[in-house]
Design brief:
The chain has about 300 residues and is of the alpha+beta class. The chain has 9 helices and 13 strands. The radius of gyration is 18 Å and the shape is globular. The protein starts with a strand and ends with a helix.
């Protein structure tokens, strides 16, 4: 048995590639890396990796995290600039006993020393959009579609990973939930894993990925855990401050069941398994989940896959 799931429809191609690897018995961490780096390298996705929208100063500063649910090893980079795949660097850091989380210039020095690919992550489109935004406002925009992905492989190992360019026009050095273990992602092969996307400043207030896994440990299904975690944090924030930012979570259990829930009107995620082909699903605000086959066909036609 194997299962893979990821946030947002932009992960479809990556899930398809990772699924082929898992069919052939690949290690789950390698499949996870293939999925996330596929999203990171696509300039069409302006919230992750190459072509990610810049911060207030015009730099693309990236965050990424990785967790091995069997060893509980974690790695993360925050506010790193000039490297093609922050996720690969985060995964590399997880293998060390110390220095698992690096930021800014320290992360960049480590990446250069270890030979990770250097690259200007800005594109003509991202620079153009930044120049337009500078003329209008210096406040951060709330576009924040993190790619978060979870894998359960044939050996029963569970992995979680994230990658994002964060808020458009954010203050230099700003970090959201994505690279924070327990907030943006969490994995425990004895229980399951979860990953989050949305407004990082609010998601981290509930350590929502850890909370989702904790609820699964109590006996809730992946779907129940996602729903309970999102609803509880949404309610708590609204009670305390009168509002809550975007909160979306995906999960997979050690038994292979998946879940997703969101407090926004429409949230997409992609999943595949040894019994199901890759498919995009939509989560509505009322909790209904449905396969979006029309979206898949349109996407594949645009990419000449029919």
């Amino acid at each position: 048995m194997w299962v893979i799931t990821a946030t947002w429809c932009m992960a479809l191609d990556g899930v398809r590639k990772a699924a082929e690897m898992l069919k052939d018995g690949a290690d789950g961490a390698d499949a996870l890396e293939t999925l996330i780096t596929d999203v990171e390298s696509n300039p069409g996705f302006t919230s992750v990796g190459y072509g990610g929208l810049p911060d207030r100063d015009g730099n693309v500063r990236l965050d990424a995290g990785f967790m091995d649910g069997t060893t509980l090893n974690t790695g993360a980079v925050m506010s790193i600039s000039g490297f093609a795949s922050p996720f690969r660097i985060a995964r590399s850091l997880s293998s060390s006993e110390l220095n698992n989380v690096l930021t800014g210039s320290g992360a960049e020095a480590y990446a250069a020393e270890h030979g990770f690919e250097q690259k200007d992550m800005r594109t003509e489109l991202s620079i153009s959009r930044w120049k337009q935004a500078v003329q209008q406002t210096h406040q951060a925009y709330r576009g924040h579609d993190t790619v978060g992905a979870l894998v359960l492989d044939e050996a029963g190992n569970i992995y979680a990973g994230t990658s994002t360019s964060g808020l458009f026009m954010k203050l230099p050095g700003r970090v959201g939930d994505s690279p924070l273990a327990g907030s943006g992602f969490y994995a425990d092969s004895l229980v399951g894993a979860a990953a989050a996307t949305g407004l990082g400043e609010d998601l981290m207030k509930g350590c929502i990925s850890y909370e989702t896994v904790r609820l699964m440990k109590e006996g809730h299904s992946a779907q129940e855990a996602c729903e309970l975690a999102v609803k509880a944090l949404d309610s708590r924030l609204k009670k305390a401050r009168g509002k809550a930012g975007d909160l979306s979570v995906i999960a997979v259990s050690k038994n292979g069941d998946c879940g997703a829930f969101s407090n926004i009107s429409e949230f997409s995620f992609v999943t595949a398994s040894d019994t199901k082909d890759p498919c995009v699903y939509l989560v509505k605000e009322n909790g209904n989940i449905s396969a979006d086959t029309a979206w898949i066909r349109a996407y594949m036609e645009r990419h000449h896959q029919f």
